[in-house]
Amino acid sequence: MSINSLIFTSLLVGVFSSPDPSYNKPSYAPPKYEQAEVPHCAKNTTKSWCLEDSEYPLQEVRDALDQHYQSVLAFYKDKLANTDNSVDGLDKLSDEFYLCPSSTEYVRPLRAINVEGKWRTIVNGVESYGVKYTQTARVEECDVVIGTVCPLVPSCYDSKCIQKNIFHRFLVFNPSDYAFPFTIEKFKLPGSCGCAVGAFKP
């Protein structure tokens, strides 16, 4: 074998056995922090969601949205189209009547606890390529102690105020998944303050 053939063979072996070290690295750079079990915004509240968060990873979420624009946009639109109780776009309350006192508002959580009991980062208020990702939930919480007699029900009936919950689907940013850091997860939020009416008391 000639010297030129040996050199050519060595080059081929080098090309096919030593790929570019950056070949297997994701183009999306993972964030430089580890998400805490309980975020700082939840330290002084008993609620399962945060509406304000000084540590919200805005830049990381935006970079990931830009990186996966087409896929996550399809994900987001599918979530909106297939969520029966979606209230995205609404932000005002109509006059309503309740048997039990309650407080109602439309919220756009930045973090929340999913149905598995884990805190997640919700994609909210982040813009990517002209699309602003917002996710709104109608939350209604009882203003009375659960089990209190319904104030507007006659005393001849057994009654009590109960907190009812509803499941919401949110687009979530998951920094530990480097391949595709977005998913749809379920969250249980207070949906209404109901009145359970029992038997008539003669």
What report would you give on this structure?
This protein has about 200 residues and is α+β, with helices and mostly antiparallel strands. The protein is built from three helices and nine strands; from the N terminus they run αβααββββββββ. A five-stranded antiparallel beta sheet has the order 1-3-4-8-9. A hairpin with an 8-residue loop joins strand 8 and strand 9. It is elongated and about 65 Å long.
What secondary-structure arrangement, pairings included, does this model have?
Layout: H1 3-17, E1 49-50, H2 58-67, H3 69-81, E2 102-107, E3 111-113, E4 119-122, E5 126-128, E6 131-133, E7 137-142, E8 157-173, E9 182-200
Antiparallel strand pairs: 1-3, 2-7, 3-4, 4-8, 5-6, 8-9
Rg (C-alpha, Å):
26 Å
- Estimated structural class: alpha+beta
Query: Helical residue percent?
Result: 10-25%
CA(first)-CA(last) distance? 109 Å
Shape assignment: elongated
The sequence of SSEs as H and E is: HEHHEEEEEEEE
* Quaternary organisation of the protein chains: single chain
Overall mean pLDDT: 80
Biggest sheet character: 5 strands, antiparallel
- By DSSP, the count of extended strands is 9
The tally of helices reads 3
- Strand order, main sheet: write it out: 1-3-4-8-9
Low-confidence stretches: 1-34
- Approximately how much beta-strand content do the residues carry? 25-35%
